[in-house]
Amino acid sequence: MRVPSKNFSVLIEESNGALQLTLDGRLDAAAAPTLLAAVTRARPRDVTLDIDPLVSIDGAGWLGVIACEQRVTGWGGRLRIDNGIRKILDLASS
User: What is the pLDDT of residues 17-43, one digit of tens each?
Assistant: First the structure.
C-alpha cells in the first residue's frame, strides 16, 4: 500500500509481524504527518524505515522520525533505519 503526500510517499509492507516503510521524496514538515499515520498502523509492532529513496530531509522531517521512534518504543516495539548512515551522509552533503 502506498500512502502519498504532495512530494512524499510511503510504501507500506508487512512482514513477519513488522512493518517496512519505504520513504520516497522529500521528508519535511508537510510530509511528517503522513509518516506518523503510516507508523500508527504498526502498533504494537517493530518498524523499519528505508530512507534510501529519499531526495531530501530537513529538521522537521527528522523531528517526524524522532516522533515515530517515540511512538513505536512507547508501544514496546523498535524502530530501525535501513540504509541510514550512508544516506544521512549523502543528504547532509547536498
Answer: 889 999 999 999 999 999 999 998 777
Q: Which residues of 23-33 are buried (b: 16+ CB within 10 A; e: fewer)?
A: bbbbbbeebbe
Is 0.70 topped by the overall pTM?
yes
Among residues 2, 51, 48, which one has the least CA distance to residue 26?
A: 51
Concatenated DSSP letters for the chain? -EEE-SSEEEEEEEETTEEEEEEEEEESTTTHHHHHHHHHTTTTSEEEEE-TTEEEE-HHHHHHHHHHHHHHHHTT--EEEETHHHHHHHHHH-
pLDDT bin (cut points 50, 70, 90) of residue 86 is confident
Q: How far apart are CA 14 and CA 70, in angstroms?
A: 20
